[in-house]
Structure formats: structure tokens, C-alpha cells
Amino acid sequence: MAGEIHGWRGLPDGVTDEDLSAFGGGGPARATRLSGMTVDARDYTAGPGRARAFFDDDDHAFLLWIDDPFPPDQTVLPPADLGAPEAELVGVGDRLSGSMQLVWASRGLTLFVSIGRRAILGLALYKPTDVSYYRTWLGASESTPYRPRGRR
Amino acid sequence: MSPDVGPARRDPGVEPDGPLAVASAFARPAGPRGDRNAAFVTQAHVLALQRTAGNRATARSLGGNLPQPPAAASSPSHPIVVSRQRVQTISGRLVGDLDGADSNLREDVIRVLDNLHRLWSINDLEYGVEYAAVGTRPAAARLSPADIPFTIAALRRNEEATLNPPVARAVLGIAIGANVGAGQPNTKADILRLQDALHSNWNLTNADYAAERAAVNAGPDPVGAPAIPRTIQGIRQFKVAYVGGTSRSSGPMGGTSIPTPTAVGARDDALVTPGTTTVTTVVGGVTRHVPAGFRDVVRVGGVNRSYQDDLRQAIDSVLGWMYAQGQAMLARPRIGGGAAGDMTAFEPIGAAAKESVDAIVGVFGQFGPPFHSRVNLLDASQRPTDAADMLRYLVNNQRELGVVRARHNAVHAPGRPEAVIAENFMTAYLSNAANVTRLRVVDQAWPAVNAGGIVSLQPFEGPNAAATRRVRWDAFQTMIHEYFHSLNHPNYYRYADSLGGDDRSVLVEGGASLMTDYVWPTVLARVRSDAALRTSVEGRPAPFDGSAIPPIADVHYHPQFEQATDIAAAFGGENFRVAFLTGRMELIGYTREAPATGVAATGTQEFVVPPRGVRTLADVAYRTQTPIDELARLNALAPSATVTRGQRLRVRGAP
């Protein structure tokens, strides 16, 4: 997958649940929240990790998250030929705990990387846009899922 | 939260003939100038006919006597005003002639109808027919303007700047001897009382109040309309605000106050995360606070310990007890005996949580969805497990690991060596299969995970009957917290997202925690007295037992709850609640103004149409809490305009 990232040019138009079900999973959508919107989402499996797609009013995917796409004992860094990211978001959202975001919005790509070594922890795939739109509507500020009462 | 369908809730004294008495005024609206006409068909007859035959057949059977939206009329005593056919409710959603994904929500329409009725802006028959028709629609249904013709007509009528004595007494709390307003008797004594009421209700500014009061005192009795234009306009403003639920004479806005600069300073102090170890330096007169330096090796229990070793020992310790707890829990029976993934047994608990919250904050006009198994209520033990994600969460969020970070001055930020050390530790830890197995079990057995409005709970019984009761009350409290996220106004989210990081977390998670804490004493009092509520939560009739109910603080985010509490203390609790539930961010000290003419919109003064859920300017008005007419003017669009994904609009916000 790492080798495919550098060629990514954005999520195509009209991606459906049926298209994504090749990952495994999908099916009935669940209403969830994303950037303050109520959005239908479906979950899929993606290699060793998991994927979640968010759908627009036409039931076409506009955002795909792929989390932990590589085996946990491997360290995969962003391909150098991606060039400098258009934005580095630190402390904006921590959906994947201990991560920061490298944003190539014009490619429709954000990599969630570890803060220390910049190992890839997850991806956000979407249609080409600008950083402002990504930050506002594509989940850049989402935080780690709440886990109440993890105590003895 | 949905208002009951059925008999209208009226203020005693507003209707001399009492609720649901006699239908009247077929041909003319009930208003300050008109007595209600003699009845010739009872409302009960009409409602029964409407229920069985529908609106159209009912109208036909009444031979055209069913009222139609009135045409604009003009007379010397009744000047033409441009009457709007819509009202923006306290949430920012619209009721009236504008279509949209968020317009004419059934619950909003019912509230608006009730308020129009209290103001006598809709007569009994129109009210009864429309109320019954709207009430039959499902909860949270979106109606089209064509579904609510009488409401729209009444909204136009409501803009008449007149008040009669019974309405003035009931909704404005003043005793007047005759009608007041445009073309009315306007005795001096009545106008003076009216001005006091409008002024205290913020419908008449200090300057206008002073000027027109002086004019009344100095002028003749009765008062001529040219002497009191702002007063007459204030009547209209009051009536519109009353119908939309934003009047200070009733509802939550009445408890709010204008923030002070001191309160804004206190808010900014509260947003600093407690416990952050910083070093203060002053360079060239500029004070900076930076994290203290990392210490790799520290003395722990009399021995030197590196950061990596400290992390390993703490994680091993945490996983030790979590793994044992989790294994035991996963082996126990499921509450309700359902299959894996089936959370039907918890739906009544979710319904009780929603209903309890709605009963308290429904007046703010926000509505959330019920909890349904496999939709937004999931079996936490059936989530796909992720050892790496679990380990990252523990290292960065678990309390015991926070102690480790603190004693090493460790901050996992870019450029800090301890961030790399922590990652090296995690990679090594995950290379051990036994560690991965333990992490997966801990992830699978985590008591609850909430994200994006979807609540995942463990459906397993406790080790004994008392513990099982506690599991149920835990679920009740967790769903109250999560339900508040679905009530959180989108404009509040918009500001919080623009702030990002810890500030966002304080506003969103601390805010939901604070709202949960606010309603809890009322909910708990009801738990004591309401056997049906207890039965919903406990799954069987049970006497009240406070020891079965965990402290509400267990479901709060810490320290975000304490930080949000400080913010609410600075601005006042009602200010915080109105901001959280209606998006009026100025009440907690954030700028919420339209961009200046000719200046590019920046910050939250620019709104980009999202990929989903916004298709008209009315939808933008709701999500940005911007008045629809102002929004149309700012963007040179008609109020009925549609919008497209990615379109950039000027809205009220902070530059």
C-alpha cells in the first residue's frame, strides 16, 4: 500500500458501498458525526487494519479512513516522492492517539503519522480539495474515541 | 422532547373561552382588533373530520369556510409592512416558507404553532387543524411549506405590531386597558407600561426607550403613532421573538447576560490544560511558557529508571489488572440474554436517558435521535480489536501512564526525543505475541467506547446482582453524556473545531460533561420518584437504591469537565447552556459578527458548504446561527437560494 500512496490523485466520483465492500464489511449505514455533521458511515476491514467510509446525500463515499494499515511491529514512513505536505496539523485532532496529520489536500490525501518517527498510522482519502476544506469538513479535528472508566 | 399531540397547551387567561372550547373566526384571524366570531362548528367536529377524512375533504365539507392565508391588506390605520412568512427559532432552524434539510422540523412547527396561538396570531380552528395534521407526522419529520399553510399565514399575521390586553397580560406580564400598537387606542398609561416591558425584554434599546418615553410624557393622551415608532417596532420584534422562542420574557434567553472582559480572561485561563509543566522565560519583554525539559532517567522507588523502562513497567501493570478483569467479564452472561451484537435490552435505557434529558433542555429546541441496537448502540465486545491503537491510547491517555509522563517531563510533541522513545517502546512491545493478545482482550473488554454519536457498551452482567444493576446505571449515564453530543449545536462545533486541540476538547467534551452534570440532579430526583423510569433502566421494578447508581463524575471527561465548569462560572451557567445548545457563542465571549462590507471573510466568518446535509441558505442559517435575512444580504442571494457543496459564504462568526 505504501508504494501506491505516491500515485494517489484523489477519491474518484461515485464510489459506492458495493465498490468498497471488496475490502470486506460494509452493509447498512450508521448515522455518525463528522466535523459536526450527521453523516452515514460504513465500516470495512483493510488488511491488518480497519476502514470507515463516509457517504454524501447521494450515498457516494466522500471520505475514507484507513487506520493501522500495516502490521503493528512494522514502521512505514511516508514516501519521499510525495514532496512536502501542504499542511502539518499538530494538536488539531488526535483521532489516532499520538498522531499528527500530514496533509496533501490537492491530492486528496492525509497521512496520520506518529509524532516521534512519523510512521504511518492511518490514511484519509478524499476528493482533491484545499487544506481549509479538509480542516473544516473532513474530520481533521476529530478526537480519540472516548473510553470512559478505564480504571481498576 | 416531542410535544404531545393533542390538546393545546395555553396560558390560562389568554383564551377567555378556554382550551379546545369552540372553533370560531373562520373568516378572520383572531387578533387584537377582532373578537372571536360566534361558533358554528365545534373544533372537536373539525378535528374528528380532519382525522378521518383529511384536510382536503374537511375543507370541502366546510364549504370553503376553512380559512385561507389572508392577502396583504392596507388601510390608513393598518399600514402595509413587509411581512415575513418565516421565523427563525432559537436553534436557528426556520419554520415557514423556506425549504431546507433542517427547515420545518415537526417539533419546531408544533412549538411555533403553540406560541402563535398564545399570541392570538392563529385562531382556534386553524390551530387545531394544523396542530393535528402536524402531530400525526413522525418524530423529527421535516415538513414542506405546503404542509403548513395556516402556520405560514399566521406568521405573516404575527408581524402586525399590535397587542390586546389579555395577550399583553399573559405573555408580557403587563396590565393595559385597551389595545396598543399600530392603529390602536394607545392610551398614555398603556404605552408607558408597554415601553417598560419592551425595554426590560430588550425589544427597545436604552436610547429609543429614553427618547420615546420622553415624547410620551410630553405629548397628548392618547399617544400618536408618530411619537413612538420604535415602540411600535418593538411590539413586532417581541412577537417574532416570542414565537421563535428567543424572547427574554420566557425561555432560556431570559437567564443570559452580556459577557464581561473579565469573564473572557477567565475563560482563556480555564482553557490552559492543568498540570502542564512549563518553564517561563522573558525575552525582550515577551513572556513565553514552554514545556520543561525531558528527563530520561529518574529515581523511582529508590532506583534509576529510564523512560522506556518506566513505560514498560506501567503498561505491564495496567494490562495485568485490565486483562484479568476483561477475561472475567467476557465469560459472564449477557444482560437480556441476547445474541452477540444484540443490544435490544439496552434500548429502554437509552430511551430513558433521552427522555430524561429532553424533559429538561427541550426548551432549547435541539433534538437528538433515539438509541437503537446495531444503529447507534453497539455491543462493545464485538468491535474489531486493534492492539496498536489500544497501546497508543494507554500510553497517551491512561491515568497511570500520565504519572509516568509527568515524572519524566515527557511531552509527546514533534521534535521531542521522548516521543521517539515512546514509539520505539511501542513497536518493541507489539512485537511480542503475548502482549498483542492481552491488548486485544483489553480492547475487546473496554467498558464503553463512544465516537461520533455511536455508543458501544459491554452487554455483560456484573459478577453479582448489585454489580449488574450498576452496569445498567452506568449505561444510563453514559448515554446521557453521549446524547448531549447529539444536542450540541453545529455552530458551537464550528467554533470549537476552528480552535482545535485542547480548546476543542474542553468545549466539546468538557461541555457535554458539564451539561450531563447540570441535568443530573434533576434526573436523579426523578429516578427517586419515578418507578417507571427505574424499571426502564433496571429491566424490572426495583425500589430506589442510591448505592446502585455510580457517581455522575465517572462519565465526565477530566480535566475538561473542570475547565468547562470554570468557563460556565465566568459567564454564568445559562450563558454556557445557551451557547452549547443554540450556538450563540458570544455568550461565552467569542466574537459572532458579520464580516465588514468589502472585507474578505476569514475565520468562522466564512462558511464552506459541506459534503452533506446542507442544500439551502436556510440550512446555512441554522448551522451558523446567522439570521436568514442577514445571510441573504451578506451573500447577495435570495433567502430561498439553494447552495452547492464547496460554495463559500459570508456568515456571522469571528474573523
> Quick one: how many beta strands of chain A?
8
Could you give a short account of the major beta sheet of chain B?
A: 3 strands, mixed
Biggest beta sheet attributes of chain A = 8 strands, antiparallel
Helix content of chain B: 40-55%
Distance between the termini of chain B: 36 Å
Strand content of chain B: 5-15%
Number of strands of chain B: 13
Q: Which whole number gives the mean pLDDT of chain B?
A: 86
Through-space gap between termini of chain A: 40 Å
Quaternary? heterodimer
Structural class assignment of chain A = mainly beta
Strand order, biggest sheet of chain A?
1-2-3-4-8-7-6-5
Q: Calculate Rg of chain B over CA atoms.
A: 29 Å
Question: Explain this structure to me?
Answer:
The complex is a heterodimer of chains A (152) and B (655). Chain A is mainly beta. Chain A is built from three helices and eight strands, in the order ααββββββββα. The termini of chain A are far apart. The model of chain A has no long low-confidence stretch (mean pLDDT 88). Chain B has 655 residues and is mostly helical. Chain B is 47% helix and 7% strand. Chain B contains 23 helices and 13 strands. In chain B, helix 6 crosses helix 8 (229-244), helix 10 runs antiparallel to helix 13 and helix 16 crosses helix 18 (501-529). The model of chain B is unreliable at 1-80 (pLDDT under 50). Classes of the chains: A mainly beta (152), B mainly alpha (655).
Show the helix and strand layout.
The complex is a heterodimer of chains A (152) and B (655).
Chain A: H1 2-5, H2 17-20, E1 30-34, E2 37-46, E3 49-55, E4 61-67, E5 87-89, E6 99-104, E7 109-114, E8 120-126, H3 131-137
Antiparallel strand pairs in A: 1-2, 2-3, 3-4, 4-8, 5-6, 6-7, 7-8
Chain B: H1 43-61, E1 86-88, E2 94-96, H2 106-118, H3 124-135, H4 149-158, E3 162-163, H5 165-172, E4 180-181, H6 188-200, H7 206-218, H8 229-244, H9 261-270, E5 278-283, E6 286-291, E7 297-300, E8 303-306, H10 307-330, H11 347-361, E9 377-379, H12 387-397, H13 399-407, H14 417-430, H15 433-444, E10 448-451, E11 454-457, H16 465-487, H17 490-499, H18 501-529, H19 531-538, H20 560-571, H21 573-582, E12 606-608, H22 617-624, H23 628-635, E13 648-650
Parallel strand pairs in B: 9-11
Antiparallel strand pairs in B: 1-2, 3-4, 5-6, 7-8, 10-11, 12-13
Helix pairs in contact in B: 1-3, 2-3, 2-4, 6-7, 6-8, 9-20, 10-13, 10-14, 10-15, 11-16, 11-19, 12-15, 16-18, 17-18, 18-20, 20-21
